[in-house]
Structures are given as structure tokens and as C-alpha cells.
Amino acid sequence: MIRTSLALLASLVSLPLAAWAQAQPAPQPSAASAPAPKAADPSVEKIPLRLTQAVSRGIENNLQLEVERYDPLIAFEDQQGAWGSFDPKSQLDWDYLSQTDPVSSNSLFGDQRSRHKENKAGLGIEAMLPYVGATLGVDLNINETRDIGNRFVSQRPVYDSGFTVRGSLPLLKGLIWNEPWTRVKTSAAAYDGSRENFRADLMNVVQFIETAYWDLVAQSQAVRVARKSLETARSLLDQTHTQYEVGVKSKVEVVEAEAGVAGREFDLIRAVNRHQKAQDDLIDAVFGARLTAGSRISIEPADDPENYVSYDINTEEAAKQALAKRPELAEAQAAIEQQQLQLKFAKNQRLPQLDLRASYGASGRRGEGVYAEGFGSPFLGETTGDNVGETFNDYWTNRGGEDLLVGAVFSIPLGNISARHNVSKSALALRKAKSQLTQLRQNIILQVREASRNLTSAQEGIEAAERRRIAAAEQLRAEQVRLEYGESTPFKVLEKEQDLVEAENEKIAALFQYRKSEIDLHRAQGTILEARKIVVDQAAALR
């Protein structure tokens, strides 16, 4: 692009300039065409950083990773909270009853109203047993009864108490695959899937940090190449201007050299802009919230991009590692497990309801016996005690009462349409999850093959780019020698210099592609954390 622009510019200006070149004064390089390089800003905090340090700090500070840390913790709370369905439930109730009977004119002792008072209290505990879905309960009831105004009943209270143990067991619907137990199992699978999802997110963050690090390295080198190219163009402009003053070069050649300087200034501006963006990307990934609108931070990568090793890649072995270690596969497997559990629950809910019930209770009574007032002798009973505690003694003697109940409940919705369609829906969801797993496996194989090819190509590309760079440097040197002897023009030198710039940028791109391909292959294999010795549990802890 630049070479074409230079050729076009030279052709446009050569004819008109040739006519008046001798009449014009010698041109002077302007400040706009050759600005002085900017001095380093002392207010900018420069941070030397190695790749391992960037990854370590990124795990500590990366905002995306900080957000993702909450998902496994929330899933864990869901999983633990699902057990709450089996917590024993206690209930305490109390009732007070005051009942007044109407006057009875036929009473033996004349018109009289009677009042009946009751104080009732009950305590119950009930719990569902995990897995089987059986329910057990214990109830304790205490009742104080007092009748006032009745000549045939003592004014003193009567106490009753009862103790009952009860239970129910589902034999069909609700056996094992009841809703609480299914929720426990599915939430456990969801928690496992959430952990694998965090592991995948952690891999992605590490991959992004490393790629951003090497991108910053590449952009730094591109800026260096652009500055060097600008310096070369400026030197050529100075040389051409001097030769013009002594009459060796024409004004057209001076203009060509000036155009070369302007073009390289534009290239430098773009290179600096890309470098600043790469700085922001890496600072955000490594330091998180430390990047603000007014940040004055500059990361200086300390790793050498040319310090690399060549890989002998076995694609089949890489694919085997990927299928064994990729967290996405484990997450998909957890999703399948959840659908399998949902299908078992749906099939169970399709069954009829058949519950076995049983209960056993004991009761006791204490209080004043029944007397006829004025006769002084027992009419219907005798005094048997006057406190609640004594009623409990009746449970173990012949004075107490006993209750035994055994029964069953059978029910089924006519048609059972919802349950049958829920089974079909769960079966389809399970098949979908399995198909997604198959698709994911295939995508992973494609990713491994692509990453392997890219890394192999990048390794070969580095060598080819280096050969081109050496050749372009030699061609530029030869053209500069020819220019000194008057056998070349600034335009041709600029062409050769541009070839060298392209070759150097190609070498930079090849090195970056190698690093990126290496990272991508580790990510595709699922070994990127293992290779960097990153412990998932440590990375998952909240900061």
C-alpha cells in the first residue's frame, strides 16, 4: 500500500517539479515532516512483568474471574440447601376453649347454667427420611378440662395426655425418586458442573492473559520497527537534501524522501495506537480495577519472544488428552447426569400412589373423680390425682389407653396425562444432552487438529520469516550503497526499506502466532492449567 502510494506520488510530482526545480530555493525539512521523538513521561509507572507473573496477578485481580468465582459457591449453597427438605419440622400449638351451656329448666336442682373450659397444648415433630421418602412423626398432646356450675361434676380439673408415633411409607410413587431426594441429587450434579465450568473459565482467562502478553510484546516490537523505519527515512531525507544542495540530487528526489518520512510517521502513529490498546487489554486482565480512565501504567514485558522451543506434535495423543481433560466434557457429562435423574423422577411420578400408614399411641388421665354434691360419697368415680405429670405414668400401666392404626392409601389421576408427557419430555431432554456431548467431542477434536496445524505452521513460519528478513536487510544495504554512488534513487531505497519493514513485521507476527498457537494447543488439550501449575481450588477462593 505504501509502496504504491509512493510510486503514484513520485509520478504526479516529477513532471511539474522538473520544470521549476532549478528556480526554487533548496527545500528545508519541516517540523511537521520530521518531528522530534517524544521524551519519556516520568509520571508513567513502568511495571516490568514476566509471563508467569502476569498469569499469577491476573488470577488474583482479573475482574471476569472474580465474577465467575461466585457461581460454584452459589451452586454449593444450592446443593447443601437441598438437604433442608429432610430437616425435622416441629410444631407447637395451643388452644383455649370456654363453653357455656344454656339453662336447663328440667334440671333436678333447678335452673342452672354450666361452663366447660379446656386448655389444649400439642407438640409434634415430623421428618422425611432421605432416599426412601418415608415420613416419621411424634406427637404429644395435653388437655386440661374443667366444668363449672354442674352439681354432678367436681370443680377441680381433669388432665388428659396422649403420645403418638406415626409413619408413612410410599410403595410406588414417591419411593426413592421423590421430589426432595431428586433435588438433592440434581443439585449435586449441578454443583459438579459449576466447578467444571469455573475450571473452563479459568483456562479461558489464563489463555487470554498469555495471548494479551505476547500481543503486547509483538506490538512493542512493531513500534520499535516503526521508529527504526522512521529514523532511516529521516536519515535518507537529510542525505538527499545535502546532495540536492550540492547539485547531485534533484528536487523530485527530495520530495520522494519527504513522502517516505510522512508515510513512516503515519505507520508509527498506528503502531503506537495498537501498542496502547494492547497495554490496556493486558493491564485490565492482570490488574483489574486498577485500570481507570486516568491510569498512568505501562507494562514492560520481560520475556524474550525468540526464546522458544520446537514441538514434535502428535495430534492423536493431543486429542486423547483433550477428551480426558477438557472441563467442557465433564460439564456436559454432569448435565447428562441431571437429565438422567429427572427422567427417573418423571417415571416414578407416573406410578400410582400407594402409601402404607401406621401409628401407635398411648394415653393417660388424672384428675378429681365425679361426685354428687351434698351426698359426700363417690357417685361415678374417685380422686385419681391432680397434675399432668401423673398422666404419663398411665402409659406404662393398665390404667392407660392404647391406639394402633395400620392402613394404606391408593390413588391415581385418571388419564395421568401430565405424568406421561413429563416422561417423554425428560427422555427427549436426555437424548438432546447426549447429542450435545457428541457434538462437543467432535468440536474438541477439530480444535485440537487446528491448533496442532497452526503450531506446526507457526514454527515453520518463524524460520521462513527470518530468511526473508535477512534477505531484505541485505537488499536494503546494497541499495543504500548504490545510492551513495549515484546509481539509485531515494524512492528505490525507500522501497527496499519498506520490504525490510514488512519482513521484520512478518517475523514479529510469526513469533506471536507461534506463542498464540502454543497457548491454543494447551487450551484445546485441557492442559493449560497443569502446564502452568495452577491449582483450581486455590484460584477459586474468593479474594
Description:
The structure is a single chain. By secondary structure, this protein is α+β, with helices and mostly antiparallel strands. It folds into 2 domains: 2-6 and 47-77 and 183-338 and 428-540, Outer membrane efflux proteins (OEP), CATH 1.20.1600.10; 88-128 and 134-173 and 353-411. Helices cover 55% and strands 16% of the residues. It is built from 12 helices and 8 strands. It has helices at residues 2-20, 51-61, 63-68, 70-81, 179-245, 251-287, 315-325, 327-349, 417-484, 490-525, 528-531, 536-540, and strands at 45-49, 89-100, 115-128, 135-148, 158-170, 297-301, 353-367, 401-411. The strands form 2 sheets. Strands 2-3-4-5-7-8 form a 6-stranded antiparallel sheet, with no helix packed on it. A two-stranded parallel ribbon has the order 1-6. A hairpin with a 6-residue loop joins strand 3 and strand 4. Helix 4 (70-81) packs antiparallel against helix 5 and helix 8 packs antiparallel against helix 9 (417-484). The longest helix is centred in the C-terminal third of the chain and has 68 residues, at 417-484.
